[in-house]
Design brief:
Two copies of one chain form a homodimer.
Chain A: E1 15-18, H1 20-28, H2 34-47, E2 51-56, H3 76-83, E3 91-97, H4 103-106, E4 117-122, H5 127-139, E5 143-148, H6 156-167, E6 173-177, H7 185-202, E7 205-209, H8 217-227, E8 231-234, H9 248-254, H10 263-279, H11 286-293, H12 299-306, H13 312-322
Chain lengths: ~325, ~325
């Protein structure tokens, strides 16, 4: 947190990305009602959010369309039904995973699409494939980010090498993704520094996507802001895989740019998220703290949650045994 | 967070204070079962916690004993029933509020008491009264801390003056108390610096007691650690007034001193806190975020919670109108 005394002011370069449908979709298999999505879109506009991520551009070859809601696939025509020509300041984003997306076919030219931003999600070992997707999307006219997942498991030298490769692509933003919710603010500071150094060299921005396994998603996000990260992911009511993400309502309350308004977030949560929370299950609990502490993928904790288990100590023993 | 690269090591001066009964008692009017208190005591010993706070030494003249559980009053004989002669490394603490405690009568000599530490809680405008209580307790042989509440509302010059007064007393530790859960880590860093400067001059320690209104209680606590604060308050499952406190299980998972063990915390939570959470109500919710944002006492939010209201936007309007 290096921006001491800057709390009263704001950086106009900040961009807030609403990932509620995309990361929240991992909780409910992307089954959101049309009313929910429409209300979310209108809320984001009122709240001054910069980007709304609708979901994934997942391969229909790999994923069964009967087993997921439409936002797993984010067809342009489905987005159009919500945003029309989107004559607003809110830009539209989708995520495309390396190896799970038919991008050359499914991503059309930007001028024919309601989408503005393609976010390419990758692990550290598939950076060349990510670079290829970025080149493809940029050539088609899109803004792009590269979201490096499971960053807490990546070696710093590998990250540097990866960013050097990405620096030479047209990507706009390098994204730090703490998929395991394993990082403390002190580590975030170190990682942001590493990212910022390469970003400065190539004229790129840095972003942060945090998870709440240790009740640190918001704290790590504002730590990253203080260290120079400009692109910030958040979701309403923290909705997201496992322990969830940085809460949009916390982030909007923190940011000082008067374009951001927190009241529309409260209104949306009252009308939509309270009910959603009764149907879908996410948020901080001991099993997520544990996988965070062990720097592991939350999948075992998600399974524990699904089975409505409450034998936390047995779960801990399972983690210790398999570690 | 200035202790970059120190995450692998630890400071032996760190002290962890379990405030579950004391701050959690504000949620359930101090009605804890004897089994719960005994299990908590044994957990703290196993977890390597340094101090266990049993509750308040409240005046029986001011407070009706029929309306509160016994830990509002913390009679020495009630503590004895739990700890016996307490031949353990866990020290026993109670809190005494300025103006709500008959300390000259109710606090007896340490040699005749199971209590080791008296924590004097005060607002910034009653420091001389706090100093008098500290002198009294120190003369009787106790360790003492002075916990300055609602620090987010205090002017820095007033805080300096207050700490200068306290520096001349025998108090061991100056405590920062973010009663309103209003502070961001960046502000914590600034306040800890202020406290550390006066503390260094008088050979005192600095402590932190955080609230979770903005999901920052743990983050603010570890920010304070990085800035030099040694005394850290936490409660199991965040139990505490309103949005609750820094979670003990998060703090024990973070601290690297091998004397601290997180597994007993998981065990205690599984056996005791899951059930407690069904009976008593605390934890992050929008109404607490709102009072935090407005830098207000959480009492209106607590009332909102008690009435099981869910009309967050109405509550927001009430706060705006009364601000």
């Amino acid at each position: 947190m290096k921006e001491l005394l800057k709390l009263m002011d704001f950086r106009p370069d900040i961009r807030v990305v609403d990932a509620t449908l995309r990361d929240g979709g991992l909780v409910n298999d992307f089954y959101f009602s049309d009313e929910f999505v429409k209300a979310l879109y209108e809320t984001n506009i009122k709240a001054g959010v910069d980007y709304m991520e609708f979901g994934y551009k997942a391969s229909t070859e790999l994923f069964d369309e009967d087993k997921f809601g439409k936002w797993k696939f984010c067809r342009d025509e489905d987005i159009r039904k919500v945003v029309g020509d989107n004559g607003t300041d809110l830009k539209i984003s989708v995520m495309a995973d390396v190896g799970r997306c038919d991008y050359s076919k499914d991503i059309i030219d930007r001028k024919d699409s309601p989408i503005d931003l393609i976010r390419v999600a990758t692990y550290i070992n598939t950076i060349p494939a990510a670079a290829d997707m970025i080149e493809d999307a940029a050539k088609k006219g899109y803004e792009t980010t590269c979201n490096i997942m499971a960053i807490s498991n990546a070696q710093e030298r590998d990250v540097e090498t990866a960013l050097e490769i990405l620096g030479k692509t047209p990507v706009n933003t390098f994204y730090i993704v703490d998929s395991y919710g394993a990082l403390y603010p002190e580590q975030i500071a170190r990682i942001v520094d590493l990212f910022m150094n390469v970003a400065a060299k190539y004229g790129k921005k840095v972003g942060i996507h945090a998870h709440n396994n240790q009740q640190l998603a918001f704290a790590n996000t504002i730590e990253a802001v203080g260290d120079g990260a400009d692109w910030l992911d958040a979701t309403y009511s923290n909705m997201g895989r496992g322990a969830g993400n940085c809460a949009m309502e916390l982030l909007l309350g923190f940011l000082k740019n008067p374009k951001y308004k927190v009241y529309p977030a409260f209104k949306f949560i009252e009308a939509n998220m309270v009910k959603m929370k009764e149907e879908a299950k996410w948020g901080y609990d001991l099993q997520y703290l544990m996988t965070g502490l062990f720097n592991q993928h939350p999948r075992a904790a998600i399974q524990f949650t699904k089975e409505q288990r409450k034998d936390y100590t047995e779960f801990y023993k399972e983690l210790v045994m398999h570690d």
